[in-house]
Write a structure and sequence with these properties.
Strand content: 25-35%
Oligomer: single chain
Number of domains: 1
Radius of gyration: 17 Å
Shape: globular
Helix content: 25-40%
Number of helices: 5
Order of helices and strands: EHEEHEHEHEEHE
Structural class: alpha+beta
Length: about 170
């Protein structure tokens, strides 16, 4: 787990809300506090869909557990845009299954993809600062920390590729 403080808040806000750069991630939740606190639970609700619609959801989403960020992003943007900055926000993103498979396939990774429950990126804005915190969860206890290290490296490289300057905390 690492914590990265983004140096220029506007840059990550643009990457997160105005571009497709994070769209491949899955959304566990988004909590945005402006004049109210808005909580978006990213878990898909099976009962909302007909059988045919659910089949389409399963075919188009890499995971049926969470909504894709690209589907949640417009709502978050509507809540945040305006003259005043939000009091705070938190977005919890998960790596899609294909990315987990890719990380597990790395020769440096000693953990099978089937043992990786999630690779998480928490993006938090509070007191004028944005911090990105990585995390991981496994289906069982694992001593090997290689998947976590590879995830941390991936996130650093991803943020750098987006042109986001950060400082490790």
């Amino acid at each position: 787990m690492i914590a990265l403080e983004i140096k220029i808040t506007k840059n990550i806000m643009n990457a997160l809300l105005l571009s497709e750069q994070f769209d491949s991630f899955l959304t566990e939740e988004a909590v945005i506090t402006t004049y109210n606190t808005f909580h978006i639970d990213g878990h898909l609700v099976r009962d909302f869909y007909s059988s045919e619609e659910w089949e389409q959801v399963e075919n188009t989403h890499p995971s049926t557990a969470f909504s894709c960020w690209k589907d949640i992003r417009p709502f978050c943007f509507q809540l945040i845009k305006g003259r005043k900055t939000p009091v705070s926000f938190k977005v919890v993103l998960h790596a899609a299954p294909a990315l987990i498979e890719k990380i597990a396939a790395n020769p440096e990774c000693g953990v099978a993809a089937s043992l990786i429950r999630s690779l998480v990126l928490n993006i938090r804005y509070d007191n004028g600062k944005v911090t990105c915190i990585t995390g991981s969860a496994f289906t069982t206890f694992v001593m090997d920390k290689s998947a976590e290290r590879l995830w941390d490296t991936y996130v650093r490289q991803l943020l750098s590729s987006f042109g986001l300057d950060f400082e490790e905390q």
